[in-house]
Write a structure and sequence with these properties.
Blueprint: H1 2-15, E1 18-23, H2 38-47, E2 52-54, E3 60-62, E4 65-72, E5 75-80, H3 94-105, E6 120-127, E7 130-135, H4 153-156, E8 177-181, E9 188-192, E10 205-210, H5 214-222, E11 228-231, H6 233-238, H7 242-247, E12 248-254, E13 257-263, H8 268-271, H9 273-282, H10 285-292, E14 297-299, H11 322-331, E15 341-347, H12 350-363, E16 368-374, H13 376-384, E17 391-397, H14 405-408, H15 426-436, H16 441-458, E18 461-474, E19 477-478, E20 495-496
Parallel strand pairs: 1-10, 15-16, 15-17
Antiparallel strand pairs: 2-3, 4-5, 5-7, 6-7, 8-9, 9-10, 11-18, 12-18, 13-17, 13-18, 14-18, 19-20
Helix pairs in contact: 9-11, 15-16
Length: 497
């Protein structure tokens, strides 16, 4: 009897405070400057630290840096903490920051993050705890650039190739967890870093289990194999039984993406702002949310993420008004005998259903919308890239720090650019350029809220909805609450009973 009891008690002690998670794909390189897939990026953030990061309200907070100051509008000085150790016991310092920067901009390395540093003129280690960054010009993302994880110079300085280094599967970081087990298509384990400068995590380990799709993840949740996982609106509203709700709390937060209809503004039929206004008045966004997302979403009023300083809460969408929509269309020369017609192109999947709902809604205002559904790659290659469309239905990701240039500046209206609809507004162009040279966050927010209002008023898109993110978390985990930057923002404090 004793031989059976002892191993069971031992296992409970060893695994009782492990947080069981899922990963949808094998991690690539566990290296912050090379992690381009979402799984590797998530794991890297637990192993490495950056100079600064976001707090739960998306405001700047210190991490490896003790403080920072702008010496002028081009020069940023970081003062580093003096109590930080790498997980192998070596001391962190300015040489690590300089090494990370030089690695990122090295022509020997292929990393998309190099683009974030093209505005930097030089980086200098003034002493072991001071780093001075000089920008080529005032740059609005001067701080956010340094939310990049920092690498250990003492381990990697003699590596011939970071791209193929064994470090990428056996990383050494300053973060709250260290890598214990790297496996392909199997469990992936991080264990608590007892030397972490902000205090050891309450959780002993993070255990990632392979779940290639949302259905598998949901079944693993139902079986009690995971402590946390995302669930779909359908699962939330139709498939959660009493047992599931007794085991898990469901946390809601806003996702960082929106769905929209984009118009080809180079076509005469969409150049008329009154036509775009009529189409906006003819649709019922809340009905889309109720049908497609079972109510788990919010109406999208404009191009930037709610709860950030770029979001303009004063911009409201008018209620659906079929009568006014018809009046505007009639003034533009359209009626029952000569209806306004256009084709909407989208890709296969849930957007097909969204298109069908929009088609029915617009028909009530006398608008005839044809639908063309395509496979994703064909949709991109033959419709979006060559700009061969009347209108299209797509989604777009939203960042904490808004950057309007790629989508909304007229210079981005080119082949390969993301201004897919051909939007042009001289005031918006001017404000985007002005904001790019603004390092004051309050002033940046003021400019971007104006950009938000102008774009919303121009209606180059029909902004539709922002889905909610639904996360199930084991009720035995305490100190859990959602945030705009993600539910694991305070995972250092989580405890498992």
């Amino acid at each position: 009897m004793k031989k059976l009891i002892i191993p069971i008690l031992f296992c409970a002690a060893l695994f009782g405070s492990s947080l069981h998670l899922s990963m949808s794909a094998n991690p690539g390189r566990i290296n912050p400057i090379l992690s381009t897939d979402s799984v590797s990026a998530e794991i890297s953030q637990f192993i490495f630290n950056s100079l600064i990061t976001y707090d739960e309200n998306a405001s700047i907070k210190m991490e490896l840096a003790k403080s920072y100051e702008f010496l002028d509008n081009r020069t940023l000085l970081f003062h580093l903490r003096d109590d930080i150790l790498w997980s192998d016991g070596e001391r962190f310092g300015a040489k690590d920051v300089l090494f990370t920067y030089e690695s990122i901009i090295s022509p020997k390395l292929s990393t998309p993050y190099a683009a974030d540093f093209k505005h930097v003129e030089k980086v200098e280690a003034l002493d072991n705890l001071s780093v001075k960054i000089t920008y080529k010009y005032p740059y609005f993302k001067a701080l956010e650039t340094w939310m990049m994880g920092i690498l250990p110079e003492h381990i990697l300085k003699n590596e011939s190739s970071l791209m193929t280094s064994s470090f990428n599967q056996k990383p050494t970081g300053t973060g709250m967890f260290t890598l214990k087990k790297f496996s392909i298509s199997s469990d992936f384990i991080l264990e608590a870093n007892k030397k972490y400068f902000l205090g050891s995590p309450k959780l002993d380990s993070l255990v990632y289990h392979f779940a290639p799709d949302t259905t598998t993840e949901f079944l693993m949740l139902k079986a009690g194999e995971l402590d946390m996982g995302d669930i779909t609106p359908l699962q939330f509203n139709r498939q959660l039984d009493k047992k599931f709700r007794e085991k898990y709390d469901i946390h809601e937060s806003i996702s960082h993406s929106y769905s929209y209809v984009g118009f080809n503004l180079d076509l005469p039929k969409f150049k008329d702002a009154k036509i775009r206004e009529a189409l906006s008045l003819a649709i019922d966004r809340q009905e889309l949310i109720d049908i497609l997302l079972f109510g788990e979403g919010v109406v999208c009023t404009g191009p930037f993420l709610p709860a950030t300083n770029a979001f303009n809460a004063e911009v409201k969408l008018p209620e659906r008004d079929i009568k006014k929509a018809k009046e505007l269309l009639k003034k533009a020369g359209y009626d029952e005998k000569n209806p306004f017609e256009f084709e909407l192109v989208t890709n296969t999947g849930q957007r097909t259903y969204a298109a069908q709902i929009l088609q029915r809604q617009l028909k009530e205002a006398g608008v005839l919308m044809k639908i063309r559904v395509m496979e994703w790659q064909a949709f991109l290659n033959t419709v979006i890239t060559p700009r061969r469309f009347d209108a299209f239905l797509m989604g777009w990701s939203l960042g904490i720090k808004s950057d309007a240039y790629a989508i909304w500046h007229s210079e981005s209206d080119k082949v390969g650019g993301f201004n897919l609809v051909g939007y042009k507004n001289d005031e918006v162009d001017k404000l985007i350029k002005e904001a790019e040279r603004t390092i004051d966050e309050d002033e940046f927010g003021r400019i971007y809220r104006r950009i938000f209002a102008l774009i919303a008023d121009d209606k180059p898109y029909l902004f539709l909805f922002i889905p909610k993110k639904l996360t199930a978390v084991n009720k035995n985990i305490s100190h859990v609450y959602p945030s705009i930057i993600g539910i694991t923002h305070n995972i250092l404090e989580w405890e498992k009973r």
